[in-house]
Structure prediction request, 126 residues.
Amino acid sequence: MTATSLADHGLVLRKRKTRWYTSNLSPKTVDELTFFGRNEAGFANWWNVTLPKTDYWHAHQVLGRAYAFELLDLLNNPESEFPEHILSYIVGAQLRWQGKDPCGGAVVHGFHEVLSEYLATGTANR
Prediction:
């Protein structure tokens, strides 16, 4: 289909350029993510989070934001390797875990704040 025929069907091509800077310390594999772990048998734990020893909601939320930036660094690192469905694995693990957060899921909330901003705008403010 040509651009003209796509427009005739109500389709419009949207382009969004994003820039994401990573350092040489950015994760290159899921095993380098601080919220990722493995059990004794080597099976993946996609949300292996140690909570702050406080009931201060904002501390939990900021931790979730930091985890999201780690994930975005991994996803945008040209040297990285990760499974195609990484986000679905993480979200599934978060759903099973969420009740453990004494601040009502603030870690997960912070994580998804960053990802939502990135999906909507192509960037996220650290």
